[in-house]
Amino acid sequence: MRYPNSVKVMVLAAAVLGAGPAFGSSMTKACYEKVHQPAVYKNIKRTIMTHRAHTRWEYQTINGRQVLCKVHRPAVYQTVVQNTLIQPARTVLKRVSARDCTQNARIYSNL
């Protein structure tokens, strides 16, 4: 297959200028760097029941005599703080300016 001269010139220019895979396609050259985002946690306060309410019979001393009495004990609650994971740690790509672009940060993408 024979190519027109204009295509040969464009391919030669791409090879000389180092356009790489971005030349002649819909891809554009952009610079990104990998940035680590730490995990996000949130402290959540919750009230929990530590002891249920109950009723039981107990002996009590009234006027020097042992008397069997029905005693009601209310429920006991406690506030606890729970550290909950909202978003796990991840690595994202952050766009950097062209002047800060190094060979390690260069990525070709369809952005």
Describe the structure.
- There is one protein chain.
- This protein has 111 residues and is mainly beta.
- The chain folds into two domains: 1-38 and 89-111, no CATH class; 40-87, no CATH class.
- 12% of the residues lie in helices and 56% in strands.
- It has one helix spanning 5-17; strands spanning 28-37, 40-51, 54-62, 65-73, 76-87, 90-95, 106-109.
- The strands form three sheets. A three-stranded antiparallel sheet has the order 6-1-7, with no helix packed on it. A two-stranded antiparallel ribbon has the order 2-5. The protein has a two-stranded antiparallel sheet with strand order 3-4.
- The model is unreliable at 18-25 (pLDDT under 50).
Highlighted features:
two-stranded antiparallel ribbon, 12% helix, 1 helix, mainly beta, single chain, rod-shaped, 111 residues
